[in-house]
Design goal:
The complex is a heterodimer of chains A (1048) and B (323). Chain A is of the alpha+beta class. In chain A, strands 1, 2, 3, 4, 20, 21, 28, 29 and 30 form a 9-stranded antiparallel beta sheet that branches. In chain A, strands 5, 6, 13, 14, 15, 16, 17, 18 and 19 form a 9-stranded antiparallel beta sheet that branches. A 4-stranded mixed beta sheet of chain A has the order 12-7-24-23. In chain A, strand 10 and strand 11 form a beta hairpin. Chain A starts with a helix and ends with a helix. In chain B, the strands form 5 sheets. A 6-stranded antiparallel barrel of chain B has the order 3-11-14-13-12-15. In chain B, strands 1-18-17-16 form a 4-stranded antiparallel beta sheet, with helices on one face. A 4-stranded antiparallel beta sheet of chain B has the order 4-10-9-6, with no helix packed on it. Chain B has 4 helices and 21 strands. In chain B, strand 7 and strand 8 form a beta hairpin. Chain B is an alpha+beta fold and 323 residues long. Classes of the chains: A alpha+beta (1048), B alpha+beta (323).
Amino acid sequence: MIDALLRLAVARRGIVLLLALAVGAFGAWNYQRLPIDAVPDITNVQVQINTQAPGYSPLEVEQRITYLVEVAIAGLPNLDYTRSLSRYGLSQVTVIFQDGTDIYWARNLINERLQDVKSQLPSGIEPQMGPIATGLGEIFMYTMAAAPDARQPDGSPWDATALRTLQDWVIRPQLRLVPGVTEVNTIGGFEKQFHITPDPARLLAYGLSFDDVVNALERNNANVGAGYIERNGEQYLIRSPGQVADIPAIERVIVAHRGGIPVTVRDVADVAFGKELRTGAATRDGEEVVQGTAVMLLGGNSRTVSAAVAERLAEINKTLPPGVTAETVYDRTTLVDKTIATVQKNLLEGALLVVAVLLLMLGNLRAALLTAAVIPLSMLMLMTGMVETGVSANLMSLGALDFGLIVDGAVIIVENCILRLAERQHHTGRLLRLDERLQTVFAATREVFTPSLVSVLVVVLVNLPILALTGVEGKMFRPMAETVIMALLAAVVLSLTFVPAAVALFLRGRIEEKDNVVVRNAKRIYAPVLDLALRLRFVFLGGAVLLVVLCGWLATRMGAEFIPSLDEGDIAVQALRIPGTSLTQSLEMQFQIERALAGVPEVKTYFSRVGTAEVATDPMPPNISDGYVMIKDRKDWPDPDKPKAQLLAEIQEKLERLPGNAYEISQPIELRFNELISGVRSDLGIKVYGDDLGQLLKTGNAIAEVLNTVTGAEGVKVEQVAGLPVLSVEPDRAALYRYGLNVADVQDVLAAATGGEEAGLVYEGDARFPLVVRLPEHLRGDLAALERLPVPLPSVDRGYVPLGELAALKLAPGPNQISRENGKRRLVVSSNVRGRDLASFVAEARGKIEQQVKLPPGYWLDYSGTFEQLQSATQRLTLLVPVTLAMIFGLLMLTFGSARDAALVFSGVPLALTGGVIGLWLRGIPLSITAGVGFITLSGVAVLTGVVMVAAIRDRIAQGVDIDAAIREGALLRLRPILMVALVAALGFLPMALNTGTGAEVQRPLATVVIGGIVSATLLTLLVLPGLYRMAWRPVNQTTDTAQESVA
Amino acid sequence: MKNMNDIPLRAAWLALVLSLAACGSESPATAEAAMAKPEAAHAEGEEKHEGEGEHVELSADQIAAAGLMLAEAGPAQIHETLPLYGTIVPNAERTREVAARFPGAVRGVTKRIGDPVREGETLATIEANESLQTYAVTAPLTGVVTARNTNPGEQTGDKPLFSVADLSTVWVELALFPRDAPKVRVGQRVRVTNPDTKQSAEGEIIYVVPFGRAESQTQTARVLLDNTDRRWAPGLYVTAAVLLDESRVPLAIRSEAVQTLEGRSVVFVQTDDGFAPRPVELGRSDGEHTAVVAGLDAGARYVTTNSFILKAELGKGEAEHGH
């Protein structure tokens, strides 16, 4: 079949070239559709169900909302697990589906179930699904600010409330229309509200209650349509406008009549613009601001979407009132552009180096160019492949591409074609006729096709274990393996079709047969060294084995990194304060942090979100703030060469000086991923499930105590569940009995007074603002005043009783939040492990806990954490790595039909790995998965050179040449392709190894491994393999048959 | 022989490297180093909580950056008050109902409602039915005519003709709920405030009604209030603050300095190189100042504004963001 394909390609070369161009054009078109982002998306398939329940405490939220939602969701198909969080005023249930589940399908199912549960929820409470977005979703952030002298139309300065109103009713509606944006989230400022704050004393004086005020407002604020009448042939619509529009209108609403005199709202209450009871705020550089975040729809192209948002925002800016601006503070385009620039630069420079090497070694411009043409073509085919398989372009997926590797197959074919064409020209002594040329090209391609195919297949095979990775590692590295495999397959197809066709079409002139200077010199040096290596083959082999052992030892001494961190340039500082810290206090502390960092010359701006935004995509309590420290371009730094780590250390030092805050420093996207994935992030997490919070905490503490006795445990931590200061107003039933009141009477008064009660809306165009009735601020915050709060008595005219008589006001810490997983309350005890292997630690901890911790009935434990992933990864790999190795060996066996030859070629792999290990060690880079991908690439190259060399030697032996001569001739003949393959692969990675741009840190280990490995692999192939071959195929009479058997 | 024996070895080695590379080594990842950081801080915090010696070290510029304010513990005046609601009523001892001594026809009325009258001034003249003599009905006290139930030509009945009230003093009737009742005694000073005008005046409790009212479960305390300028119109609702106790305590702190740490009230006291929480036993408080019964020496410098930051610093290891 391959023969037929090759024949067709050579015969119909024009059509093949046109086809190649068409495929390239298709790829270029697909490139437009390719989702591009800086980093791979590692978010699992999840749907957040947020339910706002203003005023509900964690316990009530759990009991009345979270539980019901969880029950409704339970049993959905493809459900992986659910977890939930019940916090003040918010229930969040996160439903995680198995990987690969269609999110829209999942949301439909959830929507259906939520419809059913709605009737059981408290009235007015509506669960909503979070935006259809992933951890990469927050692509664009802006803050709003007003110049100090800017004034609103009514002459007052632009305060946080006014800016928020602009954001809510002018900017947000427009940005939501940008294609690809699924949500625009707002935090900061105050939602504009009309506050009616009755004075309890004045209410008492008129014998009125909060409810009377609320009812009065509700009954005096509506427009009514009343049908139509016909008059003189015309139709008149009837409407009765009755909405209140402004503060004076509200003040004139009549609440009651006393002695024939109307009592208006103004008589009992003050009316003013008030501040909502907000759950979050935003800051920037030590000032309070209003911040908006554009969230990208899942699967969007973050670069295009965020550029579109930026453009729209610029337009909106023109229409904002004078002095008010919305300034971009975070734009994903910047990061993506920088990353793409890094990848492009690496790929471009790599490609140029490859062309240069080809030119130098082949000494034929046409051949070099047509070989290099494989690069863009395979790249464009890859684009098509990526779009079709849904792999997005990012640092990881494109990071492992090496053009050297891609063209390797083509290089070998072109090199052989030139060799054979030149030979034949030399042989016939004239330019070849067309049929001769085509015949030669076909034969030459066929001759070396097997080694080049084998090498590609080997690389594909070694990538297979990566495809088996699951979870976060899988999401990060599977695309990498997928793109490499796709690019290689594209290259194979091209070298079967395009390359021979192009060679046949373009290499028609006189072809230089003689080696050029480089190759000649190389051969001159290689020949004597080869002789030496053959003579001292045992010494060389011994040296090689020693090297392998040494490097094996070295590898175990090296540090390891599970997943490399992608440098996003900017820094995320999550500041954490003790639970129960108020929003105002938290803001004050955030201002201090921001002012402290304002002095760092590298910092462009620092903005933060404190608490939860309007759409609770990230339900943070007010004691936590997510801060984004935006860093200037390096060229604007006082010292552009300052390492990022040093800057980080400086920032951290400044932060540590501020008391009261703990910090977690990460990067914007990383932070978001952490929040969304949010499983147990330490090495070992022990989840205690059960019903009673106190018992959970007790068990948790007992487990923590046991864990602390296990050697290697570090940072043992029990999840914080308590600690939120709660003011309990506990009704005294005896007192209620005396006054003839119900519990609800007391609760209603309290809720209306402190939480506020909504009494309708005020409309201004599209904008609508709530009317809220609640106690004046100075009384809400005063416990003594709350105790005095009059509760109206039903029986006595104008009678009342103070709240303090009916209920006990207790200040006590209560549950901060209630976490549940799979429908049960849960508490996590987590621990990291230092200086000990995880598996034995977990085993010991398990044993000790089972012995020493008594669990009450109905309580159970679950062990999870990083160790779980490690275990599953190890299990998969222990199965897959040997299988893969066997497959490679089988492939080589098929190629050579000899176990011995296969083993010989295989021997190049460990030798190649030594160089990679040494390379990493020299540059002080830890082992990581990216480095592992480098090793994988390397084994492919090592096998390739080995196959080329062994195939050449076998050809000679098959022609009846004596074994020593065959080895020598074969090695010298294949010096050029081996050097070329090695050089292009190594040089193709050189820019990656040296680049320092954004995203380079991911590619650096990979490139280092490949370059180091290729140097060693080539040297060892050239020096050790011939000797090994000689040893393996010593003259028949000396061969021990048993040994052969053992190899087979 | 060698080349053959080492094939499984090589395979194993490759497997080792691949698995090492693909899943990281078994030693924990540096990616988690950042995570480990607050946990380490937590561990320290835990240790601190164990002993008495917990302590926050802060330099002068850190104190300034954190916005901490200091004050010295010392004597202070503490006013403890009890807020109540009440109604202005006329002083019942200073109102008079004026009736006709002998039944007869009213011949003339000289005062209208609201007219001020002096004691002995004529309010009306009446012709007695029996003697047919006219006589004057006079004001029994100096005050204001608050009701007039008669006009010239009418017959006097049994009902009073006038009400005269002396409004130079009024009463404030305060509703005492069961919990407050024991605290209120005759003689306590009371500040009465009009919630609308915010005007206030001071009076004194002159009487606490010994009977309670069944329907509202209240007792009434009566305050005598000077009303020479007629600001206090009977019938108005007012708020009142009964001064329960006013005394100078030898040692007091500002109330905002008090924080709760592990269920105990503490005050952060400045030490040589920072601040330490001192558990204190607190006495009476008026919202602004709180008396210290034990745990603090006079002259100690303690943190007032932003004392919460120090509490946060002590407990920051516990801060976390769980989902």
